[in-house]
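Hi support team,

I'm filing this because I wasn't sure whether my run with S-adenosylmethionine finished correctly. The job status page said complete, but I'd like someone to confirm that the output block is well-formed before I use it downstream. Pasting the exact inputs I used:
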Amino acid sequence: MRARKRFGQNFLTDESVIQRIVDALNPGEADRVFEIGPGHGALTALLEPLPALYRAVELDRDLLPFLRARFPAADFISGDVLKLNLAEVLDEGRPWRVVGNLPYNISSPLLALFTNFVDAHPDRVRDLHVMLQREMAERLAAAPGTKAWGRLSIMVQLHFAVEHLFDVAPESFSPAPKVWSSVVRLIPREPPALDTALLDRILRMAFAGRRKRLSNSLKAFAIDWQACGLDPSVRADNVSAEEFVRLTEHVAAQADES
Ligand code: SAM
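And here is everything the job wrote out:
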């Protein structure tokens, strides 16, 4: 199998891993599935008989004739997932199930794209099952008080319930990547209504000095810690997503008053 590095091509060759992803997705006959980067169709093949609607986007044009011939009932889009009009592709109707062994170089922009998409279209996506670098999966699914807890964990967990399903060894791919991977499940949820730019600013300041007292990292804001129900000597590492939301609401309310 010829692999193109610039397309982030690491093809899954371990059948047991592919089966575990399909089992985790557990597609029903009436489901609509959208795959990102089908490659040679390793996942697609195990999804057969394909659900009611199986749609996929593949950037490598050379793979498309082969994919279309192998899976004639499927709808393959030739292109870059980051440039799609997602509202058109993941159209109204039964919510889409999204799956993909993602090219690692686009994981972050892809997560941002889907976060914005599910916010704008809350009923279009039922869930996502995606393979990511293990380190990133750990950050997405992290809990407060752990090393992996940070801005990314909070931003993503406000929009999705995140489950770290299992880890995948480099040898399960051809060519083998340098790092371990993990499969995660993301289920969209309604985010709190708040000024996300302000939250992002607060998180950047808080985690820039993650071992510092929060009152010190956030001294640019006049915070009434008692009113927020927070101990000012706490460190960012130990502050939950809900507490950061409360802090952001508090800072926003103060800005409105002044
Ligand atoms: N699903 C296959 C498998 O598990 O063997 C391939 C996985 S490989 C890690 C990533 C796939 O995504 C490749 O087929 C690659 O060509 C495709 N790809 C890379 N960037 C893409 C993009 N921006 N949009 C759509 N597909 C992309």
